[in-house]
Design brief:
- The structure is a homotetramer of 147-residue chains.
- By secondary structure, chain A is an alpha+beta fold.
- Chain A has a single domain, classed as Hotdog Thioesterase (Thiol Ester Dehydrase, Chain A, Roll).
- Helices cover 29% and strands 42% of the residues of chain A.
- The first copy, chain A, has a six-stranded antiparallel sheet.
- In chain A, a hairpin with a 2-residue loop joins strand 1 and strand 2.
- The radius of gyration of chain A is 15 Å and the shape is globular.
- Chain A starts with a helix and ends in a 7-residue tail after the last strand.
- Strand 3 of chain B pairs antiparallel with strand 3 of chain D, so a sheet runs across the interface.
Amino acid sequence: MTAHMTETERFERLKRFFNNRDRLCRCLGIEVTDIGHGTASTRMVIEEKHLNGADVVQGGAIFTLADLAFGAAANSHGTLALGINMSISYTRPGISGVLTAHAHETSAAGPLSTYVVDIRDEAGETIATFQGTAYRKRDKIDLSPWG
Amino acid sequence: MTAHMTETERFERLKRFFNNRDRLCRCLGIEVTDIGHGTASTRMVIEEKHLNGADVVQGGAIFTLADLAFGAAANSHGTLALGINMSISYTRPGISGVLTAHAHETSAAGPLSTYVVDIRDEAGETIATFQGTAYRKRDKIDLSPWG
Amino acid sequence: MTAHMTETERFERLKRFFNNRDRLCRCLGIEVTDIGHGTASTRMVIEEKHLNGADVVQGGAIFTLADLAFGAAANSHGTLALGINMSISYTRPGISGVLTAHAHETSAAGPLSTYVVDIRDEAGETIATFQGTAYRKRDKIDLSPWG
Amino acid sequence: MTAHMTETERFERLKRFFNNRDRLCRCLGIEVTDIGHGTASTRMVIEEKHLNGADVVQGGAIFTLADLAFGAAANSHGTLALGINMSISYTRPGISGVLTAHAHETSAAGPLSTYVVDIRDEAGETIATFQGTAYRKRDKIDLSPWG
């Protein structure tokens, strides 16, 4: 029971860490909404500043939304993980409302782990699919300032 | 009922088409085992000819196993789809026994569709994750020779 | 001579279009510095707002820098091209100073074209490599407002 | 002069190692033709066994051709490098004659290195672009059996 509490608390602190310290995401209004074992979710309300020349959400904003979910999921195990490779496929434009991303771990072995991130619009349609690979270090993440 | 029969029959014919006409997969002992709506599975029994210099399955054999599942899933809707972009992340080596791949569609809109393929070893561990994007033409696939 | 002038002028207008209308890039201080035949360059001066929790440039900012170079190169031929798939590998952190990206076309045939983008730090070291695929429509880009 | 000889000899041994021990490549008729510092080239004469259901070269054969060039380039520094992530974009079909792939290193820092591979047909047209990331171990490659 205590162990479970500790883990829930750890996920909360990690969320606070990302939402306070990732300045690119703060600048773009992207936040982590949930972290679990090898999973994480993020959200972004589409604003004028996210648009490209064609008046739809710029691919870089969708990538960053997915990348934050990937980063939070990859770091959910308590040790430091660095993103080394990502790929993203876009199938629909993001136009208005809220975009969400959900990352889940497909594999973790040795120094590497892999995640698939599903990015959806407000209607629940997938607009992009992201795959990321992380390199896992042995260093613990210090979350003491975020308690 | 008839429509359902027809579809099941269409999936069977598509499977026969791939298993007969994809000569690379025949050469490598890779076969389609199942096709559904936007999904497909493939399998390969590891043999000497699949190995690389480190005596584990060469990445190209794992890619081809995943690519066949992707291709079968992308063509499951009855119109021609061409693979245009793929990415693959390897996390564990393939050593012996049977490898399987399962593709599912994450998005399909306009001329593009996207698939994630999970590649597993005999113990059920994911050894690689593949993502593929297909370009969908309007041409029907002629499966009449495979009835 | 006139044709050459026209083309130079077209590249200038396209640059103005991206630098005025891509609001994500304006927000992040990313700009197109040069466009040629199937090539483009971009730059970004690293600021506090680009950093992640580890105090290095967030991957999303590097991706957006590369993506803008890719987008400008893909649209350099005068007809509309949409980015459909990208992958990026990070090898060094971006810490301070100016980052630049240079995109060049590796292939263009039928509806698809492919670009490789090299992202470098101020010391000239490659910090990331990006690959993008574009889907080319037949629509002309209207650059008349940017003359 | 001696040092240069030694390196040339090392590249020759590495080439022999790949061409003898990579059994997938032997099965598919793919061979390393050249290895340098962070570079390598491969070739494959298109045969019936490489074709897919549409009678063009199956994507898996093109991937394997590129992957061997990537693997040889990544291992050219004398220490073991493992491929962890690859992406490939196809723009033209491979139909007949000889296909070649050329890999060059775009970045190498710490445990990671990145390569871009250009795959061309006999007419010199790029048919696919491949990007690969390798994880570099400290282990030396034992090439003594290949002298």
